[in-house]
Amino acid sequence: MAAGPQLENANPLIFGRSCERTLTARDLDEREPDAIDGREIFDLIRSINDPEHPLSLEELNVVEQLRVNVADEENSVSVAFTPTIPHCSMATLIGLSIKVKLLRSLPARFKVDVHITPGTHASEQAVNKQLADKERVAAALENGHLLEVVNQCLSARL
What we know:
This protein is an alpha+beta fold and 158 residues long. The protein has one domain (35-154): GMP Synthetase, Chain A, domain 3, CATH 3.30.300. Helix content is 35%, strand content 10%. The protein is built from 6 helices and 3 strands. It has a 3-stranded mixed sheet with strand order 1-2-3. The two termini are 29 Å apart.
C-alpha cells in the first residue's frame, strides 16, 4: 500500500474559534457610515482553509485579530500571519490565499499588505517579497493549478 504525501506538521496545535461578532444597531443602520475595521478583516480571513489540514487558519492560530491593522481613512489593510512551523513550505500559498480573499472582498481603494509575522519563518524575507510584488501575485493567479488550490483554500467547508 503506497503512503500518501508526508505532512510537514502532522500534529499541529489546534486552537478554539473566537466568537462571532455581535452586531449593534449602528452596524445595521444603513444611513450610518460603515468604516472597515480589524474585526471585519479578521472575519473575512479566519475561515480560510489550511492547504495541508482540514482546519481553518484561525483554528491553527495562523491568523489572529491582533495581527490585523486597518487604516480605513488611508485605504490600507495589513495582515501578519504566523505559519505553524518555521520551515512551512505552504507559507507563500497561505499568504496568497489571504491576499486574494481580501482583494476579492474589499473595495478597490484598499492597498492590501500581507506578510509573515516577523521572526516566525525561516524564509520570511523571500515570502514577504513575493507577496508584495504585484506582478508575481498576478502571474501566480494566472497559473490554473495554483488558482484552483487558492480557490479550494477559500471555499467554504461543508
